[in-house]
Each structure stands twice: as structure tokens, then as C-alpha cells.
Predict the structure.
Amino acid sequence: MWIFRLSPLLALLTQSACAEPASAPPAVATEEASGTSEVDPTTTVSAAKPGSGKDDGVVSGQLAPGMDLPVFGSEKRWNLADYVNGNGTGRADGVVVSFMASWCGVCKNSLPTLVELEAEHRARIQFVVVNTDTTSDAQQKEADILKKAGLNVPMAVVDAPTQTAWLGSSKSIPRFVFIDKRGKVMVQDRGFGAKVKPLMPKQIKSLLARADRDAG
């Protein structure tokens, strides 16, 4: 009888990976975090830098691309500029954009943390889930997952240009993008797990501290 054992490293990677259908875009749950020393100097930079030649979507430290998307199950649209913009006149002191899909198990693992953060900071921070599923049935499934988890935030449905502008050619999810009051990408996290989870509350506090400094 042959007995196979997973090495600790392989076991960790298996726990972090999204189980995806063959038709779904590639998903990478790497637990990487790209940030600035304002948040945590030990974070690793995972986003592409200007001039690097790597198409990896939004770049920390630069203005976020536009986002104007339909809200699932509604005739409304969700527009980033309503909440944060270059003039600092939006409704919120920051935005957390979470890219997810119904087939992504790692996305689902992040929901309890997002529920806690949204409940604590909803007065100042706008949370939105951007769904990358391509069928209405899958989008409905994701809406049901969010409702069951208790995450009562808008679920916008992504289009191809927006997905490319924000996620780049990799289109890896989950990805969490923290945008300050003036529309700049302060920090972004990829994947979710033991490394990313404890960073997220610090990243929210950093968004708020930046807004307070601007107001002062």
C-alpha cells in the first residue's frame, strides 16, 4: 500500500486556494498584501509599479480608476466618485472595494471579517463588493452568500473594462482595495488568510487617519 503525505507547505497552499470551475478565470489566494509603511512596514509589495511592464491592475499610491457599475437586483448604479474623489468632496472618508465571485471559497472565508469591519466603520467608510461572475445565476448565488453572511453592502456587477483596469491581466481574487477620501489607492490585499486578516483593521484605521489629517 502506498501512503502519501502532504508537506506542511503544500498543505498550507491547499488551504489557501480557491476551488474553481474550469470556465472561471484564474483565482489566486496568495495572502499577499501590498501596502505602505503607514500601514505596516513588513507588508510585501505585490502590485505592479509604474514602468514595471507588469499589468497587475491598480497601483498603490496612484488614483483609482473610475468605477460606475450596476448594482445587482436593482436599477441603481454604484459610482466610486460619489463616495471618494480628487476634491475630497465625496460622501465617505474612504472606500473598501472587495472583488469576489460565487465560486471562490477564500472570498467566502473573508466575509466574517468584512461584516465586523463594515459594522464598526459604516458611518465613515463605504464598503462595496464587486462581483466577477459572468452569469445571472452565479451572481444571484453570490448575492445569497453575502446575505447569509450578513454583509449588507451594495454588490456591483463588474464589466470587462472595469475588471481589467482594476485587476489587470491576472484577475486574481479575492482582492481588497482601500481607497482614501481623495480617490487614491492607499493599499491593497490579495487573497485572505492569517497574514491579511490582522492587517485589515489597521488599514481601515489608516484610511481614517488620512481623512482626519486632510480635514485638519
In short: The chain has one domain: 23-38+45-215. Residues 23-38+45-215 form a domain with the Glutaredoxin fold (CATH 3.40.30.10). The CA atoms of residues 5 and 137 lie 38 Å apart. Residues 105-121 form the longest helix (17 residues).
